[in-house]
Amino acid sequence: MKLPPAAEPEYSERRGRLGFLAVGVWLFYLGQPLQEIAQTQHGVTRVLGLINLLVFAASYLGYFFLLRWQGFRPNASPLWQRLTYLGAMLALALLLITTAGQTALTCLVYIGATAMVSLDIRLGVVIVALLLGGAELSMRLVPGWSDDGTYGLAIFLGGLAVFGMRRAMQRGTELAAAREDMAKLAVQEERNRFARDLHDILGHSLTVITVKAELAGRLIQANPERAATEVADVESLARAALADVRAAVAGYRELSLAGELVAARAALQAAEIKAELPTTMDEVPEANRELFAWVIREGVTNVVRHSGAKRCTIKFSARRIEVLDDGRGPAPGATGHGLMGLRERADAAGATVEIGPAPGGGFRLAVEVTP
Questions:
Q1: Which positions, given as ranges, span the membrane (predicted)?
Q2: Coil, helix or strand for 48?
Q3: Where are the beta strands (DSSP E) in the chain?
Q4: Contact 356, 364 (CB under 8 A)
Q5: What CATH number is associated with residue 290?
Q6: Integer CA distances (angstroms), 291 to 9, 231, 255, 341, in order
Q7: pLDDT tens digits, residue range 184-238?
Q8: Cα–Cα–Cα angle for 145, 150, 153, nearest 5°?
Q9: SS3 state of residue 323
């Protein structure tokens, strides 16, 4: 969830403190070597042992701060730098053996966890295995050390826990990337939908406006009153087109089948094309009416613009609609944005589109909704 800008710094700071607490709380287990040093060492040796333990704890926390700053990316720094840091932590752990004895093996748990989170998983597993083997072998070979199995088990469980945490982080990153990709696809799809609607809206309206303007130009001398009527229609169509664009931008625009039939008749009459249109639409289910309205709009626009036809017929039933004319239709192989948009709408509604010559000559655009 996107937080308000004012809340983001506070949230990030709180999350950072919780992250440090989650890592720092495991330093509790260094209490065992701390107790060993305090009970068995004295004077300068005790001080040096405590300093050694403190430096190791600081190196562990410091490396976590560095990894967090790098976004826990395994390849954020060169491999030799990461291995050198782990080697320095191992050297501090080995040095701690001189004052803390066997309890210094606790440090190997932190080294294994750091290796798992900072290195490639396969290399991290190898290092954890080496640390586990070294701990088990040393407990068997070093005189006075007892082999209770707790250190080896702790190294294994620590590495396993960090492995699980890292996989969870990786899955979270992949999920975030997938969500981002889905959001981009959704935005692109909405852009395509809006561009398609805008093309269909303006394409039809501007075609009719052009036809009526040409008709008014031809009539301005012979029949001024008729020319004035056509000019008024042009103004009305322009205002309607502007309203359609505003409605499309607002996202509320839906076509009406009855309205498109009326608009189709007016456009065909203006282009001096005889119109044969249905007088009722009761048989068309409500679910199919918007799709049929888009078919009428696109089909009539193409008839007026491209066909050179003298007659246009629209037929529809409950699941099928046809726009037929006696013209030449579009050029062979031509596919405009309007027809592409109509195909997309038909696909979304589970319908098929037929475009081509009509029986007996002319051109046909048909859409049928599959049951």
A1: 18-35, 47-66, 86-111, 149-165
A2: helix
A3: 274-276, 311-316, 320-325, 351-357, 363-369
A4: yes
A5: 3.30.565.10
A6: 49, 31, 8, 11
A7: 776 677 677 667 767 766 776 777 788 878 888 888 888 888 888 888 888 877 8
A8: 130
A9: strand
On whether residue 239 sits in a domain, the answer given is no
What pLDDT is attached to residue 136? 84
Sequence-distant (≥ 6) Cβ neighbours of residue 185 within 8 angstroms: none
Per the domain annotation, does 141 fall within a domain?
Answer: yes
Mark which of 122, 148, 174 sits at the end of a domain.
148
Structural domain includes residue 227: no
Instruction: Return the closest-CA partner of residue 200 out of 285, 260, 268.
Output: 260
Contact call for residues 353 and 342 (beta carbons, < 8 A): yes
* 233-255: pLDDT as tens digits: 888 778 777 777 666 665 555 67
pTM: 0.45
Yes or no: say if 276 and 314 are a contact pair by the CB < 8 Å rule: yes
Q: Average pLDDT for residues 292-320, to the nearest whole number? A: 88
CA distances from 218 to 222, 293, 309 (A): 8, 31, 19
Rg (CA), the chain: 39
Cβ atoms of residues 251 and 201 within 8 Å: no
Q: Which domain holds residue 290?
A: 273-371
Q: Which two tokens stand for residue 138?
A: 């040393």
Which residue, of 133, 148, 163, is where some domain finishes?
148
308 Cβ contact list (under 8 Å, min separation 6) = 327, 328
Pairing assessment for the beta strands 363-369 and 320-325 based on DSSP bridges: antiparallel
Dihedral angle sign, alpha carbons of residues 98, 102, 105, 107: negative
Domains contained in the chain, number: 2
In this prediction, residue 248 carries a pLDDT of 63
Dihedral of CA atoms 48, 49, 52, 56 in degrees, nearest 10, equals: -160
Q: Is residue 62, in this structure, part of any structural domain at all?
A: yes
Specify the pLDDT at position 365: 92
Cα distance between residue 50 and residue 13, in whole Å? 31
